[in-house]
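Reviewers asked in the last cycle whether our approach scales beyond single polypeptides. To address this, we selected a multi-component target totalling 1056 residues and predicted its structure end to end. The input consisted of the following lines:
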Amino acid sequence: MTHVNTPRDGGVRLAVVQLDDYGPWTTTPEPRRETDLQALQARLFATVADFFGDRDGYAFAGRYDNMLGVANHIDPEAFTRLQERVANQYPVTVSVGVGTAPTPVAALEAAGDVLQAAGSAQETDRREVLDHRVVDGATPGTLTVAHFDVVDVTGELTDRVSPDVAERTVRRTMLALSERLAEEHAAVTQFVGGDNAIAVCPDVGRPALESVLEHVRSETGVELQVGVGHGPSAHAAGFEAKHALEACRATGSRIEGPWGVADD
Amino acid sequence: MTHVNTPRDGGVRLAVVQLDDYGPWTTTPEPRRETDLQALQARLFATVADFFGDRDGYAFAGRYDNMLGVANHIDPEAFTRLQERVANQYPVTVSVGVGTAPTPVAALEAAGDVLQAAGSAQETDRREVLDHRVVDGATPGTLTVAHFDVVDVTGELTDRVSPDVAERTVRRTMLALSERLAEEHAAVTQFVGGDNAIAVCPDVGRPALESVLEHVRSETGVELQVGVGHGPSAHAAGFEAKHALEACRATGSRIEGPWGVADD
Amino acid sequence: MTHVNTPRDGGVRLAVVQLDDYGPWTTTPEPRRETDLQALQARLFATVADFFGDRDGYAFAGRYDNMLGVANHIDPEAFTRLQERVANQYPVTVSVGVGTAPTPVAALEAAGDVLQAAGSAQETDRREVLDHRVVDGATPGTLTVAHFDVVDVTGELTDRVSPDVAERTVRRTMLALSERLAEEHAAVTQFVGGDNAIAVCPDVGRPALESVLEHVRSETGVELQVGVGHGPSAHAAGFEAKHALEACRATGSRIEGPWGVADD
Amino acid sequence: MTHVNTPRDGGVRLAVVQLDDYGPWTTTPEPRRETDLQALQARLFATVADFFGDRDGYAFAGRYDNMLGVANHIDPEAFTRLQERVANQYPVTVSVGVGTAPTPVAALEAAGDVLQAAGSAQETDRREVLDHRVVDGATPGTLTVAHFDVVDVTGELTDRVSPDVAERTVRRTMLALSERLAEEHAAVTQFVGGDNAIAVCPDVGRPALESVLEHVRSETGVELQVGVGHGPSAHAAGFEAKHALEACRATGSRIEGPWGVADD
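The resulting structure, written as structure tokens, was:
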């Protein structure tokens, strides 16, 4: 494993990409057509995803007006380029808060803090803020990414129940997962479509993940599986995690990761 | 009110737009870069949203691989045009199930049923299915749309707590709302970004909505407000609902809709 | 042939989609990044193309700030929907001029006229104009579309000369084609990528096309082939033209169209 | 001027982004809807433009199936990321040829050569080629960008003549410009929309540009103005050129650039 010699508990850098004064814009001068807003939000997120992807980061839609990104490889100043692109291609602008901290939860809180410190999300003259906060002198290090999905989602849900029941079941499951991982492991977890969720987390071992999966199953009745990866960027760690999840699918195991026997 | 002479409890037509064999594609020949998938899903949904918007419908991202649309104004055959466009512009194809039924829940179930009847979502040779099921002879009629948001979300959440806490709070709230509206009113409810959710529902009155808001508040601690509209299309009904929600914001009331005093 | 009973020389409806006050916007407050402008223009045109495509029309990028569309099937009022979408999804707005006339050239001139009559393209307060002019009482009728390409472009140009030489050769050829078709047949011709050009033209027969191809060859040294189709919409006529062009490719003939022996 | 100490005649790196086997795809199994192809080509170019823009390059649509980019700041290996993104988000793939040479014309020829050497653009098994050729040991150096537009295009063309006449006039002008600059200065020139053309050229002085403008005027009757910039990247040079062109617009001069009196 190439990660063996890198510290697994390096700091994490997360970013919040927040639409400036978006709520009021959606109803000015009168409410805008909902499908136009849906398409705008989606394409804007695609632009954000491409921006992070170009830098080996990860991006998440969040609430669409508050998107998230994993930015371990990204200099905070680079976000001026994203802000410029959005301003030139969209009818809205974005502010970006960046946080670098020992844990994902602390990094995201710091990213949110810098935006809140700059003014309200609905202040008309707070536009295109870009700021960065470092917590406890953390620097971006090796990331751990855990990629979860539902065991046999097609057979259990997609091909069997109504689409809204399937969606609520998946959403409820991912919400329980996100809450547990945040509380117990200071991880930030996002639903990424289908039956997939991705967590940026401190290094966790197999026993901790077993406990998380068991908690989610008891709360929601849904069985998850998870692949874990480490790497210098979200893409590198996430790619290893995806391969590990493929191993789950192939072998029927529920947890796969870059651990030797001694690690378990 | 222009809707006065139309029956308010007309049938509902909903569509499920399902990516064909998508899960396997995302990992073939090896896992694809996550940000590329995020961007693909988002832009594909934007195409779907524009398609529905062009026909005065509404579209929702759902789980991204299973998108939803309100199609009261749309002939089921018209979806061949969407399927053609997706096949020509994207690396994936879509199947579309359409259901017309007396209630949104029944319509969505029918839409899902026709896809399930055609084969598994992960069958490699089930591609570009298009089918329509009518339940109890229903025909598309006047729609009721309820547009919800969180009272003072900026002050209570966005400007105050960490982005992931804000998101989980909103998601948990919208999940509770969706469950309640499905169970008690056979409505289909979708989160549409920020702090907004839109429900396609049978005609509901003020007391029923009061009960729903109270239920959500007691379950999640979050206070919602709602505007209701009727109309021949999702856009028409939704536009009236958005205006009603604006009235909530302006007046401080929690429920606004197209009711006279006698209706309350 | 399904077109046999329809008049082949019906009127033509063309539209100009003009960005409002675009030049000044591109340099305000200072010049915007060129690649952002390129991407903006391209995606905006894609939105326009989808809009026309949804209505069985054709769309052409033109100069990007002045796009064109074939709108025989489109009620001029429908463009308010396009204007709404652009305003909601892009940082710019568009005006639309529509002309219905006996010939394509006259229709495009009328479409341009109504915009010019409404004010300058760079007037800051001329925004989202939509107007329609009918010439000589024309109504949209059966369209003739001619689809041209370069004989063996891959062998003659793409695989053989430098990309800029290939492009200039193709552009010069298409310019000569466009000029000739405009002057002699009142047709509107647009380059559509690769080695393809599409002309909306009055009904032309094989001898006229032979003369056009010969003119282009003598002017530019490039040999073109062409497929012709008729139909009630640009898509219908163009689809027949594409099939005819396929017949050229398959048989080695240079002109194919919906003519019986007697027509030739 | 910050460019003073950098050599102005450094090498140029250009890239050709060529759609693989695109022509056949557009007609398989039967001709695809033209507006879908237009939208696909446009969005794919937007993706390419964003990719180059992210690296301070420039991108040009070319013939759409053969796009161009200025890549002085881009490691040829970086294009694997673009190829990956296109393959993941579009139904087509791209090959990329990169050339580094003393002049733009030589660089583009080299970029084309490496693709031609790899096989035909319509070979079904030539996919996602990426190769780089260096001519005469050139390395990317300081670039010169010249940004041209038509003097008073709005008054002379857009507001006065038919859109197709305006377009042909502009296209004819830009073609004459491109030919002249290629022949006399080994420059690569692309139309970029509206009335704008951008040339990547070796360092040219005011007298040479006067001669070019005079040639174009005598050939086409159209008067151009031009701003020139130098810089380490296309964006840096182009940004200076845009500012210089603004100076033309402000002062009425026809040529502005980073020259002292002694240079003239």
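Chain C has two domains: 12-134, 143-263. We regard this as preliminary and will revisit it once experimental data from Aim 1 are available.
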